[in-house]
Design a protein that fits this description.
Elements: H1 9-13, E1 23-26, H2 31-43, E2 51-55, E3 59-60, E4 63-64, H3 73-89, E5 91-92, E6 98-104, E7 107-114, E8 123-125, E9 135-141, E10 144-147, H4 150-158, H5 180-190, H6 195-198, H7 203-209, E11 213-214, E12 221-222, H8 224-230, E13 242-247, E14 258-263, H9 266-281, E15 284-287, E16 296-299, H10 303-316, E17 325-329, E18 333-338, H11 348-352, H12 366-372, H13 382-392, E19 399-401, E20 409-414, H14 418-421
Parallel strand pairs: 1-2, 13-17
Antiparallel strand pairs: 2-7, 3-4, 5-8, 6-7, 8-9, 9-10, 11-12, 13-14, 15-16, 17-18, 18-20, 19-20
Length: 433
């Protein structure tokens, strides 16, 4: 049986870490439909990281039907052989997804992981039953696989040979720069069945299974995303890969400040920075009112808003720019600054209203790992959540700022007004749980 994939199969089937537009379910084996979906996911039109085709699970209204229909072992063997042939003869350039068999509620299913390809655009045969059939480009539109036409086809062709930075090979590094311990720790945390097999795989085999290693066997290199998450010192390869938290007790013009730098694997420093802010700078106030029994409780800054702002910066910053993520805290506001700014296709008024959706993501793999670690919920959810939790806390609306050149992005969270009105809280400050 093939090794497992670096996912939690239960989370995949219930779309807890993978958005519905990145998963397609097939009750049985339909080679032509699956071929077109593989082609679409490999083209990765929006840089979302490709997707998954789950064979043996029916779909109803976009949701998987469980228990699954399932496949027989001999069917799975035949499908895998046919996939190999399709990848060589029915898609150009050649493309082969990673596959794994899982047992779910007593039934066998086959999961095809189709990462965004390195040599897009890909095209596939429009029909497998007609030897004279045309070839066409396919892409994903919401939860459907469609043939690329008109402007979409021209835009897809413009993406030729453009691979997002986090998915490129790092030729100044070697496979020894990937930490098997950090990889196994990640797999165990997300509940992947691959964790149980990881100790028996060498770092190249394990890295290829996780798509953090690429290239031919004689010249294999780690990918940038692998070094960012699975190397103890990613700043060696990507200078300024760090989060700086600076506190100005007297405001930015004062002479005093406290500073702490967080360096290391991306998942770790993201959590450590947020935890540090929560322990040291977040306070809750309780105000009792004489005319009603209910006390009013609020935080100077809601933790969920800070977490989303920091994760947003980690997800969307450029790791080619030698500037750290900065979190600046004063008694009046908390600012998260990252470089560069949002894509020019995003209007700032839409961003301020929480309606902005990026047409194409800067980092397609970093978001994938952050979602598996439960640090982000999904595509374009961070800004709306910040707005929502700030409002729920009774805080002023946050602001989202950039410049004309879109060279930086700043999220500004203002302190709750009650912290100016009430200097002597009724209860001691608490750290949010």
């Amino acid at each position: 049986m093939t090794p497992k994939l670096p996912i939690n199969i239960d989370s995949l089937l219930h779309q807890r870490t993978i958005e519905s537009e990145r998963v397609e379910y097939k009750a049985g084996w339909n080679p032509e439909a699956v071929l077109h979906s593989i082609c679409a996911f490999a083209n990765d039109f929006h840089n979302l990281g490709g997707g998954y085709v789950v064979v043996g699970v029916a779909e109803q209204n976009g949701q998987p039907v469980l228990p699954p229909a399932g496949l027989q072992p001999e069917q799975i063997d035949r499908i895998q052989k046919e996939l190999l042939n399709l990848g060589n003869a029915a898609i150009q350039p050649a493309y082969h997804p990673l596959t794994a068999t899982y047992e779910v509620q007593g039934k066998l299913i086959l999961v095809l992981w189709v990462p965004g390809g390195e040599t897009r655009p890909y095209k596939a045969r429009t029909s497998l039953g007609d030897k004279k059939a045309d070839w066409a480009f396919y892409l994903r539109k919401h939860t459907s696989t469609v043939r690329a036409k008109g402007a979409d086809e021209h835009e897809l062709l413009s993406l030729a040979a453009t691979v997002p930075f986090d998915d490129r090979y790092q030729q100044s590094a070697s496979l020894t720069d990937l930490s098997p311990h950090l990889i196994r720790e990640f797999l165990q945390e997300i509940g992947s069945e691959l964790a149980g097999e990881a100790a028996d795989l060498d770092v190249e085999a394990l890295g290829r299974r996780m798509n953090v290693v690429g290239g031919p066997a004689e010249m294999a290199f780690p990918k940038n995303v692998g070094l960012l998450f699975f190397n103890e010192h990613p700043e060696r390869f990507f200078p300024a890969t760090q989060i700086d938290v600076v506190y100005f007790p007297d405001g930015p013009g004062g002479n005093r400040f406290e500073e702490k730098e967080f360096r290391g694997p991306l998942g770790r420093i993201t959590r450590d920075a947020v935890d540090y802010i929560a322990r040291n700078y977040l306070k809750e106030t309780v105000i009792k009112h004489p005319d009603r029994p209910q006390a009013e409780r609020f935080w100077n800054y809601p933790l969920a808003a800070i977490e989303e702002a920091v994760v947003n910066a980690v997800y969307h910053r450029s790791y080619e720019i030698r500037e750290p993520i900065e979190v600046r805290i004063t008694p009046q506001e908390l600012i998260v600054l990252s470089f560069p700014g949002p894509d020019r296709s995003i209007k700032m008024e839409d961003l301020q209203a929480g309606r902005a959706v990026s047409r194409r993501y800067r980092n397609r793999r970093i978001g994938e790992f952050l979602k598996e670690l439960d640090l982000t919920e999904g595509r374009s959810t961070g800004i709306p959540k910040i707005l929502r939790v700030m409002q729920a806390n009774g805080s002023p609306l946050p602001s989202f700022e950039t410049n004309e050149e879109r060279s930086s992005f700043l999220i500004r969270l203002l302190v709750h007004e009650g912290f100016f009105e009430e200097d002597d809280p009724e209860v001691p400050p608490e750290v949010p749980k």
